[in-house]
Amino acid sequence: MTDFLIANDARKILHVDLDAFYAQVEMRDNPELRTKALIISRDPEETGGHGVVATANYIARNLGIHSAMRAAEAKRLAPNGVFLTPNFSKYKIVSQQIHEIFHNFTDKVEPVAFDEAYLDITDLNQPSAQIAAEIRHEILRATRLTSSIGVSHNKLLAKLGSEFNKPNGVTVITPENMLLFLDELSIGEFRGVGKKTREKFEALDIENGAQLRVMSYEKLRGLFGKMGENLYWQARGVHFGEVKWQRQQQSIGKEETFDQMLHREFDIQEEFKKLAVSMIKTMRTRHLVGRTLNIKIRDANFVTTTRATTHEKPWPLSEEAFVQNAQVIFDELIEAPFSIRLLGMSMSNLQSSAFEEMTLF
Ligand SMILES: [Mg+2]
């Protein structure tokens, strides 16, 4: 069964990940930092010991510092390290450059983070490794930053591959070398294995992928539930998750024509609410946010008015905000008594919400 599944997966998937992204951007902009332990976090001395590390350069990592570590702990490990408050607006600009490069190769891009994405390049004719090399070259040329790429036939192996050869490397995992690769992987490197799971495996003397693959499905499920089932397949390099990409869309939203024309403020507000709820739902499902809210109103004489409100940042997905904006526009344009035959609400200037949803610790 396993062999069948492996042979059947003819996709070409890349996982692209910049190396120590925030730290690399700061070192690029201030080369003096290259020789120092650089920790992207507010200085715990200024925050009274609060805060966590967003990322750190490789000098700091060699001292044992890592993302999500308490800043105070990082300070103990690197008393002479440089602590820099993250400059997210700067990283975001670089992030947009990188994601534009991805889209020059394919539209099938699933953004994972500012500096990280899956690409499905199955439709492209060139060899995957060549495309990976070109993407890395383009990123370096445009941003002067290095990245690592995992190349394989599914997202799991692509992700494991990009982690394997970090920093500044490419790893190609094929159906032929995949089991060898997984054999050597330590248990903690499999997806979703946290400290607790790792300790359980240690107690069982299971340390790597080869030993994991010997364990039966029933045994893994009994010990770890869903996670155990998942690990059973991971050990075999099987993963069917698709690269979740969106066709570029101009706008999301809709308009409603009323059989009975609306005359009351209350009904107008109720209709705007319905439109907002439906629009938010679609945007959530498609992981999109937008900068421009468009309101459309048509009266009994077929006079149609539209108004767009564009923000510098995407609108929050808030029913109240949308309805309030619509109501203000309505009150500006329409005088009572009124007869309204159509209302519309839509969002344009769309972008992926992956950037907005990211939790920055
Ligand atoms: Mg990264």
UniProtKB/TrEMBL annotation:
Positions of the UmuC domain: 13-194
Keyword Cytoplasm: yes
Cofactor note: Binds 2 magnesium ions per subunit.
A Pfam family the protein falls into: IMS_HHH_1
Active site: E116
Binding site for Mg(2+): D17, D115
Reactions performed catalytically: DNA(n) + a 2'-deoxyribonucleoside 5'-triphosphate = DNA(n+1) + diphosphate
GO cellular component: a single term: cytosol
Physiological role: Poorly processive, error-prone DNA polymerase involved in untargeted mutagenesis. Copies undamaged DNA at stalled replication forks, which arise in vivo from mismatched or misaligned primer ends. These misaligned primers can be extended by PolIV. Exhibits no 3'-5' exonuclease (proofreading) activity. May be involved in translesional synthesis, in conjunction with the beta clamp from PolIII.
Family to which the UniProt record says this protein belongs: Belongs to the DNA polymerase type-Y family.
Protein name listed in UniProt: DNA polymerase IV
Provenance organism: Leuconostoc kimchii (strain IMSNU 11154 / KCTC 2386 / IH25)
